[in-house]
Specification:
The chain has 2 domains: 11-127, 3-Layer(aba) Sandwich (Rossmann fold); 154-361, Rossmann fold (3-Layer(aba) Sandwich), CATH 3.40.50.300. It contains 14 helices and 12 strands. It has helices spanning 11-15, 48-57, 81-87, 96-101, 119-125, 140-150, 154-161, 177-195, 199-206, 222-237, 308-311, 333-340, 353-361, 370-373; strands spanning 37-40, 63-66, 168-171, 209-213, 251-254, 268-273, 279-285, 288-292, 300-302, 305-307, 316-322, 343-350. A 5-stranded parallel beta sheet has the order 3-12-11-4-10. A hairpin with a 2-residue loop joins strand 7 (279-285) and strand 8. Helix 8 (177-195) packs antiparallel against helix 9 (199-206). The longest helix has 19 residues, at 177-195. The radius of gyration is 22 Å and the shape is globular. It starts with 10 loop residues before the first helix and ends with a helix.
Length: 375
């Protein structure tokens, strides 16, 4: 984690939110950020407009470090900033200091899951682009599956899915028994912690399993599977759960920024029992958490399933991925790659071989114009 004196924050908070404005901030070209170094994580999620506002606010002598995975899904708004920056033609001479720092990666490593830098990636070094080749969040079969998807190798993807490896499972669309078991078991662990008021344990329990969907609506969409998961949990507890009323263990997803409460779109939390049984919404903040009465939240919903887009930036022990039919235009290589790389220990793919092969073949194509402008 970060040192105690360093605080992570959203881009909106960094730039300084202005009430009544979604595209203008307190820090801009006339009021620069005071930092010598600014590190942006999950840069693939940053839109072209937001990156423009950030660059306007950074001092010319400051160092901006962009961290992210260009193979993941791009921002829901316009642009594919990180992918364009990585793919741009490189000019200039090699930086000897940078080359020395990554010298160990030039040749093949002893770890079979850690590939040596290719000639293309060595060329990227001259443009300040460095690939981190050693996975810290997952490895083994999950890493091999992610790379096979990223590289568009459909036959290898299917071979890995059907390998029987402990880290990967492949299920037909009608085979949801294992999914149901994980949903119920995770809910039981979270509810037990939430009922006794242990917010830290409840939040940690949320990371045990996550159900991901490509669509919001439809047969394989979040809306339907959220309702199914809620029914499964209620049946296991022999209780009718109504998301209109707060209950311990209720998983939450914030769907709009609330700058005054410092709760932001995409934050996930859980309802826990507070003093005298008062329901409180717990959200992770650094090494700790904050408690807010859920009635204060202006835009929040119960979340047993979420879209793959929403899951970016998060990690879970086990991830279950529900794939739509192969004709879905949302089913792309980037979507599959993003979903798979959310899993630390196990990824469960639910769908057909046709859907998987279609997703591996189909790529997201965006023409933002940025790549041409930075030649």
């Amino acid at each position: 984690g970060l040192p105690a004196e360093l605080k992570a924050m959203t881009l909106h908070r960094l730039l300084g939110w202005k009430p009544g404005s979604k595209t203008r901030f307190r820090h801009d070209s006339h009021n620069r950020l005071p930092y010598d170094v600014v590190v942006i994580d999950e840069t693939s999620m940053v839109s072209l407009t937001m990156m423009c506002r950030l660059l306007e606010a950074v001092r010319p002598e400051s160092r901006l470090i962009l961290v992210g995975d260009p193979d993941q899904l791009t921002s829901v708004d316009a642009g594919a900033v990180l992918a364009d920056l990585v793919a741009r033609p490189v000019t200039g001479t090699e930086n000897p200091v940078l080359a020395h720092l990554v010298d160990a990666d030039f040749d093949a490593a002893e770890d079979p899951d850690e590939a040596a830098l290719s000639a293309f990636e060595r060329d990227r070094l001259r443009g300040g682009v460095v690939r981190l080749s050693r996975g810290r969040r997952f490895g083994g079969a999950i890493a091999r599956l992610a790379v096979a998807v990223r590289d568009g190798r459909g036959d290898e993807v299917m071979k890995l899915l059907e390998s029987g490896d402990d880290q990967i499972s492949f299920h037909a669309p009608e085979d949801t028994d294992a999914l149901r078991a994980d949903v119920v078991d995770t809910a039981a662990e979270v509810t037990a912690a939430a009922t006794r008021g242990d917010a830290a344990a409840a939040l940690l329990g949320l990371e045990k399993h996550r159900l991901l969907c490509a669509h919001r609506e439809g047969r394989w969409g979040v809306a339907l599977w959220d309702r199914l998961a809620l029914e499964w949990v209620g049946e296991a507890n022999k209780t009718f759960l109504d998301p209109a009323y707060w209950y311990p263990g209720q998983p939450l997803l914030v769907t709009a920024n609330d700058h005054e409460a410092r709760i932001y779109n995409g934050d996930t939390g859980v309802v826990v029992s507070g003093e005298n049984g008062t329901p409180m919404a717990a959200f992770a903040r650094g090494r700790g958490h904050v408690l807010i009465h859920p009635n204060v939240l202006s835009a929040v919903q119960t979340v047993y399933a979420m879209t793959i887009h929403r899951s970016q930036g998060s990690q879970y022990d086990t991830v279950s991925v529900l794939l739509p039919a192969e004709a879905s235009t949302l089913l792309t290589r980037e979507l599959l790659y993003t979903a798979i790389t959310r899993a630390r220990s196990h990824v469960r793919v639910i769908g057909t071989e046709e859907a998987i092969r279609a997703g591996v073949e189909r790529q997201v194509l965006r023409a933002s114009g940025l790549r041409r402008r930075i030649l």
